[in-house]
Amino acid sequence: MPVSKLEKFRGGMLGGAVGDAVGELASTHGDYDSLIDWISEGDVLRYTDDTAMSIGLAEAMTMSGGGINEEEIGKIFQRNYGREPWRDYNKSIPAIFAMVKRHDMPFSEAAGRLHDGQGSMANGAAMRITPLGLLFRNSGRLREFAEQSARITHTHEVGVDGAAITAWVVAQLANLDPKGKFPFAEFYTGIVRFAQTKELRLKLV
Prior knowledge:
It is globular and about 50 Å long. The chain starts with a helix and ends with a helix. It is mainly α. It has a single domain (5-35, 46-204), classed as ADP-ribosylglycohydrolase fold, CATH 1.10.4080.10. The longest helix is centred in the first third of the chain and has 22 residues, at 5-26. Helix content is 67%, strand content 0%.
């Protein structure tokens, strides 16, 4: 039976959450056997801020009417942070929220003031992008929406491009026939072509 859109969305979100939780454990259990033992013996896997913000992005997109609303996403990010600040958030996230509250500015403007006005080039925007890649996988505005969602917390061109590239990857994977042969050459070439910053293109080629 064909995989439904809802099943793909659930699978993408659940897979990301499990990978996030296991990846967090791997940061303290670098040895493979130790990691497997820890996972097997535990009864709970805890995801980090990456999944929390991925969930927040998915929540916000259900309210946006088919697009990206910076203020709505930012407010949901802020709400979820207030509920669970212990999910290993980078210190830049509460700093953005504080600037927004203090100066009544857009989230993207506050994010752009970080790192001496260059904005963050870290991978946080890419780590949460899965729901956007799934929802807009057949949209001609995928890059536009990915960039808008990234700039809420990451405004450096590398951080923004990384989020857009990851959204593209998610979209392509979601559209593949799971029983077909993986088109490695086309997939790899497509990633390189989609990248816009020289820094990421050099890493990909």
